[in-house]
Write a structure and sequence with these properties.
Blueprint (H helix, E strand, L loop, with lengths): L12 E4 L5 H8 L2 H7 L7 H12 L5 E7 L2 E12 L4 E8 L8 H15 L5 E7 L3 H10 L2 E12 L2 E11 H6 L1
Parallel strand pairs: 4-5
Antiparallel strand pairs: 1-2, 2-3, 3-4, 5-7, 6-7
Helix pairs in contact: 1-3, 4-5
InterPro entries: Acyl_CoA_acyltransferase (IPR016181), GNAT_dom (IPR000182), Ribosomal_N-acetyltransferase (IPR051908)
GO cellular component, one term: cytoplasm
Keywords: Transferase
């Protein structure tokens, strides 16, 4: 796997996603403990993962990075739905189940949020989490995100409707913390 580190950190590094990472991504995104938490209801085959890589990861309208701990990929994190004029973006991430509860998601989120505010000039970062994903809600709050509202029964995940909890963080709030 490539050694190019884009954002180095103490616990994790964030690096560009490369073609060599597609097998890891496809395997982990099909794990029910990942796809349920991010609201994905259908399996991803190799061609679909390659399409995601070519049309989303390689697109200039988003930032998609691999979370790496001790030179091993553990998840992904990125900004999508970037609105440059309004200087806002939506944060998304997942961590492979065997790496849960080790602080990798929080460390990666802190790195990317700092990059978003300090290097991209974002004013606001939003994130959405499904009600079944309490760990992700706690992660966002621990990093400084504020709960902003709930969209009731907004997604159909794993056979039932789930509320979507929205969170937000402003650049000034981040810098004050």
């Amino acid at each position: 796997m490539p050694e190019t580190v884009f954002l180095p950190g103490e616990r994790v590094d964030l690096r560009p996603i490369e073609e060599d990472d597609l097998e890891f991504l496809q395997t982990k995104i099909n794990d029910p403990r990942v796809w349920r938490g991010i609201g994905r209801a259908r399996p991803v085959n190799g061609a679909q993962e390659r399409d995601f890589f070519e049309n989303v990861v390689c697109d200039d309208d988003s930032v998609n990075l691999l979370i790496v701990a001790d030179a091993e990929p553990v998840g992904t994190i990125g900004f999508h739905t970037i609105e440059w004029e309004a200087r806002r973006a939506e944060l998304g991430y997942w961590v492979a189940p065997e790496h849960h509860e080790q602080g990798y998601g929080s460390a990666a989120t802190e790195l990317l949020v700092e990059y978003g505010f300090d290097h991209l000039g974002l004013h606001r970062i939003a994130a959405r989490v499904f009600e079944c994903n309490e760990a992700s809600q706690a992660l966002l709050e621990s990093v400084g995100f504020t709960p902003e509202g709930v969209h009731r029964d907004a997604e159909f995940i794993d056979g039932e409707y789930q509320d979507t909890h929205w969170y937000g963080l402003l650049a000034d709030e981040w810098r004050e913390a």
